[in-house]
Amino acid sequence: AVIGFGVSANSEMAWQCGGALISESYVLTAAHCIQSREKGPAQRVRLGIINLNSNENLQEILISARITHPEHKPPMKYNDIALLKLVYPAQFTPFVRPACLNTEANIPQPTAIATGFGKVTYESPEGSKDLMKVQLRLIPKQQCSSSFSSPAEKLSMPQGIIDSLICAGELAGGKDTCQGDSGGPLQVVLRQPYCMYSLIGVTSFGKFCGFPNSPAIYSRVSHFLGWIESVVWS
Q1: Peptidase S1 domain: which residues (predicted)?
Q2: DSSP label at 149?
Q3: What is the pLDDT of residues 93-122, one digit of tens each?
Q4: pTM of the model as a whole
Q5: Domain boundaries, the chain
């Protein structure tokens, strides 16, 4: 899913965040994607597309409610997860399907796949028009902590890389999520059933897109299952 904000001067939506459809009526995203500083609250969701300029297989649905995790307290980076309720249910098609939520804190796979319409380089002026994907290495907590040790990072994450976070990237550089990918899914391929994916993380924040020793942080879906289920399936 891609999330649109406000109406800019040329009457076009600003598509600034990603998300994942998890039921007919709810999209999972990042809490910091609920509101844009320049454009105001998230207004609508696009489903089923792999190019922002294409209407093929598109479902565009207004947002009726924005539900932030109750423990998300900026400028803290923890609990950066939210749900968007759609005005009416999405129609499931071969191109629009709900994501499977990962239930296990332990992830056996060494890598995961992130997708989004964000920038393709740190210097890019805007996001990609095409949906991009990248395979990223899951990085152990201790190894990741050394990449987030500046005074500012210690202020926004005083407890460091806690269990509700996933760290992923390529320490050699060259692969990463970037601005505009926030809220989008981090998934692993399941061995069974064949060709199915499981949603393990929600893109939260990074440092420099694709730079060496600069992994990104994702909210761990399994940690928030209780809250997600209480909102979506209560």
Answers
A1: 2-233
A2: -
A3: 999 999 999 999 999 999 999 999 999 998
A4: 0.95
A5: 2-98+228-232, 100-222
